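Supplementary notes for students who missed Thursday's class. We covered one full example, reproduced here. Read the sequence, then the structure, then the short commentary at the end.
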Amino acid sequence: MNFLAAFVVGGLLCVVGQLLIDLTSLTPAKILVGYVVAGVIVSGVGLYQPLVDIAGAGATVPLIGFGHLLAQGVQKAIAENGIWGVLTGGFVAAAGGVAASLTVGFLAAVLSRSKDQN
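Structure (token representation):
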């Protein structure tokens, strides 16, 4: 049942993104930024965590989940460090994922062979 919930929620988030691409004049970059900002806002008002509890990775893996991660990090840092947590919480919360993606991207660039694009 967990797999089904993750598939349905993740799929619906992707469908909304695809509809925004197909039916509006928004660029994909604006839609991606909008997803992250939406994740921060929805998480900030406390509505995203129940969805994460139901759908697991279907709600945390898409970009809206990254916004949720940032908001959760800021909330935790504010609780621990006061107002200075606003400046540090998002960085601390996302550091592991960003470091992993940079490392894997670097390794892929080093281990792969580039080809002439012409």
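Commentary. The chain has one domain: 2-111. The first helix runs from residue 2 to 23. If anything here is unclear, bring it to office hours.
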